[in-house]
Amino acid sequence: xxxxxxxxxxxxxxxxxxxxAALYAIWLRLAGRKRRASxxxxxxxxxxxxxHPFMLLLERLRLFDSLQLxxxxxxxxxxxxxxxxxxxxxxxxxxxxxxGTGYAALTVxxxxxxxxxxPVLLAMGAVFGIVLTIRxxxxxxxxxxxxxxxxxxxxxxxxxxxxxxxxxxxTVQQALARCLEGKELREHPLYKEWGDVVSALRNGQTFSSAxxxxxxxxxxxxxxxxxxxxxxxxxRGGEHFVLALRELSYTLWEKRKAIARSRGEEAxxxxxxxxxxxxxxxxxxVAAPAVLxxx
Length: 295
Fold this sequence. Notes:
It is flat, with a radius of gyration of 29 Å. The chain has helices spanning 2-35, 39-60, 63-66, 68-81, 88-116, 119-167, 172-178, 189-202, 207-218, 221-233, 238-270, 272-294. It is mainly alpha-helical.
């Protein structure tokens, strides 16, 4: 009798694990199909579930009118990060998606709180909703700052190459093009904007207009100083041009060193929290046997 019960128990356990494996395989299959879905379908789903209803809600509540200053700031950040044809309507759509994501998190936690009779889940949902709503705005600011630091970090190298090429007898336009040799334009924001300048010059655009557009697209103070020096001295060429850029190069190298120091300090500060956590775990592991022996 006991052997029969044990056999039934083992078969039930086996069926349980086989069933779980089958369900897991089916879930992976469905997930794979979803991943293979086209980007257009995903955008349509996002537009239908998040963007369109919350766009209508924000327009009816007139929040776009009352939040013009934050919207303008967010739009300028996205205009720097995205392509040049980015519009204010797309910025409003991103804001609507952020509000929709936060509302979805709040709704899910509210239902879980109602089902489980746990008020803490409702408070957690409110926190998650606020964080998910604010996150795109904060992330845009971080990306703009990271983009600025990348440009300032790489600009002294490009400036040094430009000085060497012009000093060796190249024209300024030829030197600008040769500075990009061996560079991947998509991997760095400065390379991309620099490549657009070279393409504009090859297409017959005037040097001054191409450099001014480069300055506006970068929107970095150090790049603005560089373009000003470039426009004032590029017709002279030779030693005058190289001397003007060399004075600017000293300042840019110092700013690059300052950015490197600040990044090192940020990395060291980020390591403090894991080290504190490890220290607490070690203290618990060391103190636990002593406490157990005393009890």
